[in-house]
Amino acid sequence: MNITLRDITFSYDKDPVLNGINAAIEHGDLVALVGPNGSGKSTLIKCINGILAVSEGEVLLDGTNIRTIPTAERARKIAYVPQTEHKAVPMKVFDAVLLGRKPYIFLKPSNSDLEITSGILKQFDLEDVAMRDVHTLSGGQQQRVFIARALNQQPDILLLDEPTANLDLKYQMEILGLLRSLTQQNITIVIAMHDINMASHFANRVVMLKQGSVFASGGREIVTAENVEQLFQVKVRIIYENGTRFIVPVE
Amino acid sequence: MTGTGLIDQYRRYTRNRLFFILLVIAGIVVVGLYAVISGAAGIAIKDVMSVFTGGADNITNQIVLHIRMPRVLAALLAGLALSSSGAVMQSILRNPLASPFTLGISGAAAFGAAFAIVVLGAGNMFDGSALFEDFSPSIGSSFFDRFGDRYLVMGSAFIWSMTSTFFILAIARYRGVTPEVMILAGIAIGSLFSAGVSAMQYMATEAELAAIVFWMFGDLGRATWHEVAILSLLLIPILIFFSMMSWNYKSLQSGDEFAQSLGVNPFRIRLSGMLVASLATAVVVSFYGIIAFVGLVVPHIVRRFIGGDESFLIPASALFGALFLLLSDTVARTLFSPVILPVGILTSFIGAPLFLFLLLKGLGKSYWT
Question: How confident is the model at residue B138 (pLDDT cuts 50, 70, 90)?
Answer without folding.
Answer: very low
